[in-house]
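Input structure tokens:
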């Protein structure tokens, strides 16, 4: 199992408020996390880095190879819940950080299962045999409008409020998370990214790039495509295969 990750400030922003981390535990076990922060001044950067650091430390401390799926679920949910509380407390203790928050996509692959914990509008995709599946569903205003039939998916892509999210770590002392289990087979690629990638790189380009390239070249190319199509946001992409 291999993991490659890259984060880039993009072409417009003056600060990179994305954070990411990963670890390959064994030949069939690895995890990765991507967080996209929000908040004035240093708030977004602080929120995303605090969440990533907490989650990384928690998994490194708590994971045991003999965990069953129930224990693994509890560990992953506890890691994200704890990260939420850490960011929330930091925002309460420093008025300059008030209102900060962050998205979070945490993916833990073990054997033939990918365990995904999701909050916000960062995304996790699965690419298999030239086809792409979005595993997560955005927690955003426009996605709610799509669900109610008020917008089509194509209209949502260009809606002026598409960046308004309805869930994030650090906004409240409790957070509602999505937990998804997805099949992971040999040859599959998991792609985890912030919206700085998903808003500027089409699914077709994702599939083509994943099919044609590997490793550092793969993630470098995806970032460059996002820049070529505007690069108005920070860009973070992690691939697991």
């Amino acid at each position: 199992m291999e993991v490659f990750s890259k984060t880039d400030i993009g072409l417009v922003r003056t600060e990179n408020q994305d954070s990411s981390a990963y670890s390959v535990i064994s030949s069939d076990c690895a995890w990765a996390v991507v967080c996209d922060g929000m908040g004035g001044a240093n708030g977004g950067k602080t929120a995303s880095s605090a969440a990533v650091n907490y989650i990384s430390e928690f998994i490194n401390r708590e994971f045991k190879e003999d965990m069953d799926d129930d224990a693994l679920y509890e560990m992953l949910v506890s890691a994200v819940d704890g990260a939420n509380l850490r960011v929330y407390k930091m925002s309460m203790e420093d008025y300059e950080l008030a209102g900060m928050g962050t998205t979070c996509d945490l993916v833990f692959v073990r054997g033939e299962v990918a365990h995904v914990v999701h909050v916000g509008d960062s995304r996790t995709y699965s690419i298999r045999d030239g086809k792409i599946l979005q595993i997560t569903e955005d927690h955003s205003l426009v996605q709610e409008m799509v669900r109610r039939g008020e917008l089509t998916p194509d209209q949502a892509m260009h809606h002026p409020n598409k960046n308004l999210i309805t869930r994030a770590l650090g906004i409240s002392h409790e957070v509602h998370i999505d937990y998804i289990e997805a099949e992971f087979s040999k040859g599959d690629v998991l792609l985890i990214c912030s919206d700085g990638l998903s808003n500027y790189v089409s699914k077709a380009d994702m599939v083509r790039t994943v099919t044609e390239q590997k490793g550092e070249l793969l993630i470098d190319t995806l970032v460059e495509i996002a820049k070529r199509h505007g690069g108005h946001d920070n860009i973070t992409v992690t691939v697991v295969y």
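The longest helix spans residues 69-93. The chain is about 35% helix and 30% strand.
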